[in-house]
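Dig into my protein:

:::
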Amino acid sequence: MLSRAILIIPAAISAFAAANAATISPKLPAISDNCYQISNADELYGFAAIVNGTDGFVQDRGACGILSKDIIVNTDVLDDSHNLNKTDGVEFEQWNPIDSFSGTFDGNGHTISGLYYEDKDEYKYVGIFSTVIATPDKPVIIKNLGILDSYIEESSSYSGVLIGSIADFDRDYKDSYAQISNTFVLSTTNYTPAMIGKLDNRVHLTIENCYNGYGKKIVYTASGYVETRNSFALNKNESTGDYQVSLVTINQFRSGAVAAALREGTNGSIWGQNVGTDEYPNFSGSLQNTVAAKYSVTFHTFEGDTAKYFDSYISGFTTKLPWTVEKENTKFYGWYRDKEFSGDPEKVIDTSTFGDLEYWARIRNTYSVTLHTNGGSINWNRFEYEYFDDSVGIYVEGDGMTLPGVTSRDGRLFLHWYDNEELTGEPVYSISTTDKGNKDFYAKWLQTEKPNLDESDSCYEISSAAELYGFVGMVNGTYGYGEKQADICGKLTKDVVINKNLLKRDGTLDDSNKSSLIPWKSMNRFKGTFDGQGHKISGLYNSVFIDYIDTTGGAKKTAIRNLTIDDSYVTGSSLVTDIDLGASLSIDNCHFKGYVSAFSATFGAGGFVMLSQGLVNIQNSSVEGIIASGYSAPLSIGGFIGESFEHLILTNSFVKATFIRNTKPSPEDDAAAGREVFVTLGSFVGHLTGHAIIVNNYSVTNMTGATTGSVGGLIGRHYATAFSSSTSRIVKHYDALESYIANNYNMSSYNDEFSLDECNAKWTCENNFYLEGEITKTDCATPMAADKFTDNTVASALHDYTQKDSEGNAIDGGFNGNIWIQGDDYPVFAKNTAGSKHVVMLEPNGGTLANFYINYTTGETITLPEPTLEHYTFKGWYTTEDFRGERVYEITETDSEDMVLYAKWIIKQYKITFVINGEGTVYCGKMSGQDEIRPNYPYAFFDYNTDVYIVAISNQGHHVESISGHKNCHSNSCNFHLQEDLTITVNFAEDVYSSSEVVSSSSEVVSSSSSETELSSSSDEKSSSSSAEKSSSSSAKSSSSSVSSSSSKDDKDAITVPSQIPQFSLTAVGRNIQVAGARLGSAYTVFDMQGRILTQGAVHTANFNIVMNRYGPYIVRIGNQVQKIILK
């Protein structure tokens, strides 16, 4: 049995012998009932020989075999990790795979252990049975068999421990059959260890009550049909594998769960396991020490239910409960373990559950909801609602339902649902949890009107709430007004009231009339102009004025001016939620008086703008009222803008507000329960990066509510961040950049819990003041006692301010404090003294400017300044970061908008002039490659800071005498980063030899690393006789009688090796070329066989090493001498 043969190893075989296999001689097994009785290894090999027709046996492919005992062929074939045992000295008896088997093999509850086979390409698919031939009339059968401690190494990736391949009998287009039952493998292969490698087309294979304990496949691949019943394979997680095999974990094997399941299969009584001793099921026939078993399960649904549900389960497995109970006009809410439906519903019987079970189905009645739209239509959210058609939905008793409000009708705005056709009484927003029965509801609409177009300025005139909503419909493409017209102009000709008396005296929402409120519908992606012309809009409820500004369809400028929004309750901000990367918003002479609810804001909240990645210019404007947030959101709060990442201009504006923060999380705010959330608060800006101009503004605010975070008075925080554009999804990194913050004050009070976020070093901060005692420290402002704000001290300091340059001179057109006067309680602005200005933000892209902005008034003509950047040439200002469009030279008298301009640069080039004296060649370029310097054009040009490499190569009989012009010039080369114009002088000189320097020629040059020596001269070279030598007082030359090039015909495109005999030697060691005897001061170059320069340098020592990237042939030139070498 498995527990005796495998898991409890006798001491006698616990140590290896010199060989782990006995000599096996195939033996004819005895026959009983026309079946070979196999009792030992010799008889097993004999049965294989019978089927294969080898070892003198007559072939019988349809033979029947039955085991009468467990058989061990080799011991310890696998190690503890189930891999092949590769211990030194271990040898295994080779198995002879059974081929083309079409009979019956009955393991009879026994196992075969220790089979080993190494494929020598004799079989394409190999297993214990290399090939099984399925037949149409009688199925091939393998049953009641265990394969242990065996290893099959094969050349095919279709691995099968038991069977390599199951093939069709005669491919006559008839189905053939094979059956494998009550069989397991605890063995492996050199590929994925499957039980069966491959199944051919038209083969019907039935696998029942089997398992693979070392891999997750029963069948590796199949073209035929596989029917798997109650069979298992090992996996990390419980799931369903290929061909419906049940994938189970090792714990499900060890716990007895798999054994219990196998025992429930056909003829499953053969299976057993002693849990705690046996790791896997075996053929003991007895399951012990486990709760794993088959248990009953009962499902209680409703009277008259005729559906069939399963009535038992095997413990230790995850068993899915029926997914639904079907009953007309009801909804199924899950299975519960008791009739009171206590706890949570269950979807599965988990692996830890055992014993008999009962489940009760929770079923609730459903009713119809008929919505009478009076000509409108409903866009049901299929993830939120169940519905029959466009007008009839479903609600569930006890659940209730929020009525859908996303409806549309030409020329009308949906307001509310009512429960009667007369539309009287209170509006209905939802069906309660106590409601029953079918329901009918009726829609009430607000009639909108398309405003008239003033053709003199192409701006739509708005004089009523109906026309204001009509304008919104034109922008958004709703209410039947056609396509979106996001870039149109609208202007108020009268005050517009949407909801009367929306806020109470304390500035909070009046809940008493909430049911009759008309909700505001935000303008989406508005890119036009909205001019209040001094009028106001009262009673905006719930939504921001403009939802989002982006660059869809091209960058456009959005402008809001001369507008007051009064008595309003808005979410996140009053004017704009989000300004996308590259978009622009101008807010001029705009005033908000109301309540900003930031309870659901994600990132920031602000009086005017929640978040901006574009350009925002706020001037001559104010925010008054309350800005309130929940305990866990938002992250940054500002009086004007929550978060500004890119460009901000804020001038001549003020905030008078109360910032409210919940002292503890609400019951609904589960995410915030029990924790404090970091928040930043700035009276002007919550979070500021990028460029900013903040001049002539003031804040009179206070903070209530406990929290933890930082406050910087006017600005909350300025740390670097990364943010993704809403449309382009580009993640851009933002940091605080050069900014000008001057002539502002903050007379605000805050909780002691807030700490200061100090000013950024890149900011220029001048003449700013704050209330002494409220902020402990700041580098950006001066503390002032409360009485200094009332006795004209601060007002005078603000009024007398003038922006000056670094030399103390007033800047022409710069900022000043002329608008300031002393008010009753603090400094204020003089009326009608602040004009509207536009700003050009200049992005020098690394360059230097006196100012990063220009203030201008329409009608002025201003020439744009030119920035400077060392080693670069300025190529103009452009309106886009990628320099598309026309270059901008000046602000013209017709310009009337804020803009951002970007500086374009090109890197400067510098010249190298070469002075070359003597005979030789100079190469110049980057490290990746050099060009020859021609005598008729001795120049080279490179971008600033280019890494330049220069090498001088002398002609034959000459050498480099000197190279100069840069401190990094040595021997015969230079290497430097070019940062100025240079002159490089190279002097070549003729070689001069003494009589002692005579060099004898050699018949061949040998590379010592290989027997395949490459010659730099031909094989018929002959040494010249000593009598042929001629000497003089100045030189002596060595000659060779017949030196020829060693280049082969295959290297016809390679460089030609000169015939001169080299004075140096080369040795190949791995990928290293070892040079010996090189002449000091010479230049060396290594070429490939196509003549390309791979590396070069100067000889500083006679013996040195050159490392190459790869093996192969190379040409080495030192001075004017050349050798070829092969690295192997």
